[in-house]
Known about the structure:
The protein is an alpha+beta fold.
Amino acid sequence: MPHASRSKSLPELTALFTEVQQHFVNVIVPLWQGPGWNADMALPYEALDAAHHPLPAQRYRAMACARQLYLFSSLIGVVDNAEERAAALFRSLQRHFHDAEHGGWFYSIDAQGKPLDQRKDLYTHAFILFACAHYWEKSREPLVESTLNAALEVIGQRFATGDGLYEACLDRDWMTLQTGPLQNPLMHLAEAFLATLQVRQDSATQQALLELCTAMHKRFIDPQHGVLMEKPLGVVDNWYEPGHQFEWYFLLQSSALLRGSKLHSALDKAFAFTEQFGVEQPSGAVRAMLDLEMDERAKDSTQRIWAQAEYLRALTLRPHSEAVVLHQLQALQQRFLHAGGWHECRDEQGEVSRKDMPSTTPYHLATCYRGLADYLR
Length: 377
C-alpha cells in the first residue's frame, strides 16, 4: 500500500511495535524453548498453564508441530538455537506423524508417541505444506523440499474434489468420511499455496490456488453481504467468523496474484460490514462467531487473541489506517499480552476465560508481527 503520507501516530506506533516484538522474543518464544518443549519426544507440549507448567500430555498434534516449525523457521537468525529447533521439529514431524503405509500424516499421537487419531485432515496437511515452504526457504535442504512436494501431491491426489475445493477430512486409508469442504482448512491451504509460490515458481500450485479462490467465491460467499461463510452456502446452521474474514482479506490483499479476484473484491467490500458487527467499540475486541440469519447477533462473543491478531494484520493493508492500527495494537497489548505470556481468550464481559497458553498461538502472533514490520518498513 502507498506510504506517502504518514500521520503523527507513526512514531508512537513504531515504539509500541518495538515493545510487543521484544515481548514476543524475550517472553513468548522462550516458553517454547524451555518449559513448553518435551525433549524426550522432541515435540512442543500442547499447552502451558499460567505458571508455565505443561498441561498433562494427552496428545500431540501434527498441526501443532508444523506451526512451531513455521515459528522457529521464521526466527532463524533472530533468536539463538532457532535453526536447531526447526531441524528437530522437522525430524519429529516425519518420525511421529508420517503414515508410512498409506502416505500423508496422522492427525495426532498419544502421550507415549503411538498413533491416536489416524484420520487425514486437510487442516493438518495445509500447515505441513506451509511450514515446509518456510523452512525450505531458510534451509534449502533437499529432504525438506521433497516433503513439501509429498504434501502437495497428497493434497492434490487425495483431498481434491475436482471442482477447485478439497475434502476437510478423510479416513486413514483415504476413504471418504463425507465431510465435504469447510472454510477454515481451505483458507490455510490457500495460505500454504501462497507460501509455496513465494519460495519457488510452481505453475501447478498457482493454478490450484486460482481455482480454489474461484470455487470459494462461488460456494462460500454470502451473496447479500459478501462475507465468507464457514460452511458451503445452503448448509444448515451456517455462520461466519470475523477473524477468518480478516485473515482471508490479508492473504488476498497481500498477493499480486489474488488481488482483484472476485473473492478479494467481495471481502474488500464486506470489510466495513465485518468491522461494524464483528468488532466491539470502543474496546476493539473481535467477536468469535456471528449469525447472518439472526440480524448479525453473535453466536459466540468470546474474544480470542488469534482473531485480534488477524484483524490487526488486515488493517496494515487498509488505506489511511495508521490511527486504527495504533489503536488495535494497543488493544492487543493491553487486553491479551502480559508479563508471563498471553491471555488466550476473554469472555463477553472481557474477563479472562482461558488461562492456558496453547503451542499453536505464537504462529498467529508471528504472522501478525511480520505484517506490522512490513507496514512500518
